[in-house]
Amino acid sequence: MKKTESEIQIGxxxxxxxxxxxxxxxxxxxxxxxxxxxxxxxxxAKVYIYLGKYGPKSAPEIFKSLGLPRTETYxxxxxxxxxxxxxxxxxxxxxxxxxxxxxAVSTLINTEKEKIDLLADxxxxxxxxxxxxxxxxxxxxxxxxxxxxxxxxxxxxxSKIKEMIKTAREQITVFGSxxxxxxxYHSEIIExxxxxxxxxxxxxxxxxxxxxxxxxxxxxxxxxxIPKEKNDNRCFVIKDxxxxxxxxxxxxxxxxxxxxxxxxxxxxIDSIQQLFEYSWDASEVSY
Length: 287
Description:
The N and C termini lie far apart (73 Å). An 8-stranded mixed beta sheet has the order 4-10-9-8-5-6-7-11, with helices on both faces. The protein is built from 10 helices and 11 strands. The protein has 2 domains: 5-103, Arc Repressor Mutant, subunit A, CATH 1.10.10; 148-285, Endonuclease Chain A (Endonuclease, Chain A, 2-Layer Sandwich). Helices cover 46% and strands 16% of the residues. The chain is of the alpha+beta class. α3 packs across α5 and α4 crosses α5 (70-82).
């Protein structure tokens, strides 16, 4: 049976393992997952990719080829146009085309930056408005409740660690693999630690050598190594023995998949601090 045009066009998206097109399907799936990080839904990313790789298409061609509902396709096209990464031709029927990937990504990044700038501008107004409403909580003599916060994604977690460093009064304790410490460095966490006025101790585990970027930032006496450790999935940061960020999924995972908990639980912090002290005594000096 002769294949229709739409069946031929969709070949790469539905390619089965072992076929000539399957390698391209895997690559397009990776591209789709990356575009989702920029705020697109999976179907929006799929439509963009389809237009980018197959050229200008009408809405009927798109929803027939991708197997999407008709109304959803028109809605997606409207969203992609409003985000500036898809344009419409003056033709009948209307045909849609995607911006080159470099321009599209740049546009999406700029959009997110504008959102952040807008939120930053609104921060003071929101805080001022908040102060105009009195608190209605009733004060009691109950002991302070210990807190636990779940955090997912490097951005949220690293932001919390930076906040801890800024408010540290006595000491910052860091335990992590070379990959963890490297991500801390690229997120400017190591530089913040080096500029803080608190006592700092860092254990790299597993690690044979200290990364070069440490040389100008941290006193080598503050760094120790555990070269023979088999596990590379442990990472935590303790501040003043009153706050801890403990990674449950560390830099052995992609940055958007890292997962951690923050807590001010005294028992949890004491346990992790004891683990650090034991590891510090068993570790090797780095100089």
